[in-house]
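notes to self, project folder thing:

trying the whole complex as one job this time. last attempt i did each chain seperately and stitching them together was a nightmare. two parts in total, labels are on each line so i dont mix them up again. if this works i'll redo the older ones the same way
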Amino acid sequence: MEKFYRYEDLWRFTKDVFCSMACSAHDAELAATCLLRADLRGIDSHGVARLNGYVRLWEAKRANTRPQMEVVHETPSTAVLDGDSGLGLVVAPFAMDLAIRKAKNVGSGWVAVRNSNHFGIAAHHAMRAVDEEMIGIVMTNASALVAPTFSIERLLGTNPICVAIPSGDEPPFVADLATSTAANGKLEILQRKNEQAPRGWIQDKDGNISINPHELKAGGALLPLGSDREHGSHKGYALGALVDIFSGVLSGANFGPWVPPFPSYVAIPENMPGKGIGHFFGAIRIDGFRKADEFKRDMDQWLARFRNAIPAKGHEKVLVPGDPEREMEVIRRKMGIPLLHAVAENLDYLAGNFKILPVS
Amino acid sequence: MEKFYRYEDLWRFTKDVFCSMACSAHDAELAATCLLRADLRGIDSHGVARLNGYVRLWEAKRANTRPQMEVVHETPSTAVLDGDSGLGLVVAPFAMDLAIRKAKNVGSGWVAVRNSNHFGIAAHHAMRAVDEEMIGIVMTNASALVAPTFSIERLLGTNPICVAIPSGDEPPFVADLATSTAANGKLEILQRKNEQAPRGWIQDKDGNISINPHELKAGGALLPLGSDREHGSHKGYALGALVDIFSGVLSGANFGPWVPPFPSYVAIPENMPGKGIGHFFGAIRIDGFRKADEFKRDMDQWLARFRNAIPAKGHEKVLVPGDPEREMEVIRRKMGIPLLHAVAENLDYLAGNFKILPVS
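result (full assembly):
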């Protein structure tokens, strides 16, 4: 079912596809690097498997591959960026770099983005800040799949929060989490295998617990982190909500049930209050608080203490957020990236369509 | 079991107690207002029921009621504040006001605090920013009760995150959530009633599921939001961890298992890497991103959409974070604050001890 591909080969091919969509060479490289970072880190749902989805967004004229991005409002530490309907894969690095520049000047930088599209995995963007000895913070809203606690309506996306924190000798802390109990990608895996979902991931159209992974098609919803009120779903709901407000309302993008969907065949919501989807980026200089070497010394102590915590029976070790993805990246850079047959076929189709060299 | 007290009477009494602990009149008023805000909002575990705990911290010389707070490092948008071992109830408003001043100057302000003590409820501090047309963000670490996913060790506090967001005509969004599945206060209620805890709140000393609310005394731990790996406990763990790092590591306070406990009879950890407990405060000017009236218009639309969402069967309405606490505050300002007999007795004891007029 799976075949392995070299990262470099997939990168060249993905870049060629973005170039064929009229991206500049610079933007195509940015977008390919971002998209493939998901495959490297094992987040297969957000990698080249989605390349065709971006192509279709562009074909449907919902994504602009030659955006004129514009800072529409700013203070020394804050800004709103209009992404001009650009690919999120290109808009996000631009916004993060703007946040980093502001942090260099005044200690921290915060950029809300409107009029963008899906930006791949948040961790890739947040880690740009870590390279500059800064904490990186990234959020985005997305089309609604999650029901607030006590509701039967889908009003929030899986709205991730990512925080990446630099360190000294220990590998860094990189938390990148959907604010729903289960990400949609995990549901898609169960759908393909026709397996049941655990209780606590999904509700049906009336708000009852469901284990049917196809329930969303029948009007059901994903549940916020916490699953039910007794286990704190009101907290997951609150977290998803604040991601929506920071990304959508602070920026002037769409929010709640009005966020436009990624699949180009799904209709755009009516009476949209803003522009495109919204993101939020933050960069904090660690030496805005303490000398960098003191922070790194303490951060290393923190990381070592948690990585060496006593595991429960049946578990080999205790992980720090980002450890599994970093370990996967090392493996896949060496061993290659496995693609399902259907995904590989789809890349061949794109090669034929754009008359570019297929990936081998 | 319960008797009702007027807010004004409890406030006068609480202020007198703090004055008796050598607080200045100004600090005693700040502390009383903060502590009683918890009772008003229905967070009884963090209100006057804890007054005696603060007295004991002071008696044990673990809290300094005449602190010389000092900004030890800063940039235009960031600072570290040393609380000089002051009461968190007094240090926190000072730190939040510093964040607000920085936001007025450069769009946002971020203050990490070391060498502090427990600060009551985070929402009270975050809402100071809302009064200034800013988003308020507040975090704090606390002594370790929560085990990371896959571990049997208690390494994190219930580490809350609070975000308060201004609005126009609709009441504001105020999310204030412990990053554990259940707050310790809820466990204490079950302990008093000798009732079982729901599965998913606690594990025993070996990492097995437990429903015994006394399990923490036997080496057990609270579980991160999500309860278990299948339901996303690694996300709750990541959130609690980042609160710990922002509050403890960025500031130079203690972190992880080294955060000192609130009860004065519990020993201080050995080899503490920092000073006191840590907090983190943020203030973001909404007009650092958009015109305030545009933001408020969209925020009102967001709030109205969620408050009017279709409820599931058995639920009257869908809530926005902060709604229950705001409604409780209206009731209790009018009807008074109910105190358990044991709490009222304890206040009488303090009145006798400090020779001040008892609360009636």
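what i see at first glance: The longest helix of chain A spans residues 88-106.
need to look closer tmrw
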